[in-house]
Amino acid sequence: TISLTINGKECLAYENETLLTCARRHDIYVPTLCELDDINHTPGTCRVCVVEIHQACKDKHQIVTSCNTPVRNGMEVLTRTKKVRNMQKLQVELLMADHLQDCATCSRHGDCELQDLAQFVGLKENRYFNRQLTESREVDDSSPSIIRDMRRCVRCQRCVAVCRNYQGVDALVMSGTGIDRLVSLRDGLDQLNSTCVSCGQCVLVCPTGALGERDEIDKALDFICDPELTTVIQFAPAVRVAFGEEFGMPAGTNVEGQMISACRKIGVDIILDTNFAADVVIMEEGIELLNRLKSGTKPTFTSCCPAWVNFAEIHYPDILPLLSSTKSPQQVLSTLSKTYLPEKMGISPDKIRVISIMPCTAKKDEAVRPQLSQDGRPDTDVVLTTREFARLLRREGIDLKHIEPSSFDDPYMSEYSGAGAIFGTTGGVMEAAIRTLYAVINDKELDEIELTQLRGFEGVRSATVDLGGPFGKVKVAMCHGLSETRTIVETILNRETDFDFIEIMACPGGCVDGGGSLRSKKSYLPQAQARRETIYNVDRTTKVRQSHNNEQVKSLYKDFLEAPNSEKARHLLHTHYSD
Ligand code: HC0
Ligand code: SF4
């Protein structure tokens, strides 16, 4: 072991440790901005983690960046000298020299790592602010989902690292030199035309307001406040187990009831549940899968994750024929809200606007797909990320912590099974599908409903499941994160594996860690486990646990769709992809 002192305190360090990690282990705070420990990212570009070292043997004082300076035996490290504090303040001032000064109008106001840092160093003036330079930086708003505002970028490169090393998309690069060295899309393209798939993982790690979603809160409010319109809201399986964190509740708190009350309070007319549509998707996708198995087409990929669909279209168009044609739960519910619901309630479809709350940025891309609209009007009128919905509630003066929970009261599309609920975590769609497939094939329910062999957190998991009947054992795989997805898609294209059914979720962890969910300062996906456990708990405590036993789903087929994959169901609930 290595022995050194930090601020006079004896500290033991590991071989190859940096000064920053050693200080942290000893509970000594050193400010950082670009660094992100969870993804092992220490580019050393912000230079706010400076400390002073004194080497007695050389009687030398030296300022170094602690994030990339290794510990050495006998080092004397000082983190709070006047020299260090002044350097840190200067570094933050230099960062602010090329950064918009309009914090009050930024979506990160009050939740920004640069603001935190300015407070830590006691920044009181911005002597070097160069308005002309800052305002000349690019704002790329070409994409329906992700906006990249280089006027707020601090060049930490976390986005580049996550996109490259975790998602394997590698859409982002550093380009330019000197003060013009900036994050851009590869080959100078704009977001819309680049290889970006809108997964939003870069947004989750951005410390400032440089990356964010297209803000559509006003559009949603315009619908809600228009007395001529009937507004329908839906929220995704994963939202209810993460949304409470936006209001300071512990990770994994289930706030479904509070969200329903909040929606009523702001004046939404009809509150539906995407979980219900997840059950419908299982009916459609399940029968589709059986038909494909009968005809020998394999594997079938799930298609409910829109960043995965983008990824397939942009990066692997050859794989598109293998994607399930069933629309995603978001789109199924929106379509039914403008067909089935008006028929049941006697309202005009023209007057209905569907707002969906998703833990996802790519759902905004999905909503504007031309094939997911009727006569030029999108089925989903506006998608808000979990973050936007929190901002909307704040604008309406609502604190979720102080609102009484209530229940759904819509008789047509709000009931859900445990199978629908588990869609929100990796492996959930597969588990839900197997529960129903087994019952359809064998005319009886699975003995053991919790398919624990499908659960877990490894990037790719595979299992063999006995479906009984003519199909017997089938091979399935569950994959989350796009690096892993790339690997599995390539093994399929190279005919190295023979899976029957593959679930893909683009975000590591699945929707519980979606790119539209709460950003956690200085950490990447810290809440995954807690959110996931609550999702499984919802399943455990739901009366009905299989999609085909959902009474409202049965009524939908009896009264409207006739049968899964009927002509009407195929027309309304299935789609196609484009290369
Ligand atoms: Fe998901 Fe979905 S599970 S993609 O992660 O399938 O966003 O939560 O809403 O549509 O249901 C996200 C979450 C959804 C959809 C569902 C699917
Ligand atoms: Fe990369 Fe996803 Fe960000 Fe696009 S949204 S740049 S694919 S991390």
Automatic annotation (TrEMBL):
Residues 1-83 form the 2Fe-2S ferredoxin-type domain. The keyword Oxidoreductase does not apply. InterPro entries: 2Fe-2S_ferredoxin-like_sf (IPR036010), 2Fe-2S_ferredoxin-type (IPR001041), 4Fe4S_Fe-S-bd (IPR017896), 4Fe4S_Fe_S_CS (IPR017900), Cytosolic_Fe-S_CAF (IPR050340), Fe_hydrogenase (IPR009016), Fe_hydrogenase_lsu_C (IPR004108), Fe_hydrogenase_ssu (IPR003149). Gene3D superfamilies: 3.10.20.740, 3.30.70.20, 3.40.50.1780, Fe-only Hydrogenase (Larger Subunit), Chain L, domain 3, Iron hydrogenase, small subunit. The keyword Cell membrane does not apply. One of its GO terms (molecular function) is ferredoxin hydrogenase activity. Residues 144-177, 185-216 form the 4Fe-4S ferredoxin-type domain. Transmembrane segments: none annotated. PROSITE patterns: 2FE2S_FER_2, 4FE4S_FER_1, 4FE4S_FER_2, 4FE4S_HC3. It comes from the Bacteria. Residues 83-122 form the 4Fe-4S His(Cys)3-ligated-type domain. Keywords: 4Fe-4S, Iron, Iron-sulfur, Metal-binding, Repeat. Belongs to the complex I 75 kDa subunit family. This is (2Fe-2S)-binding protein.
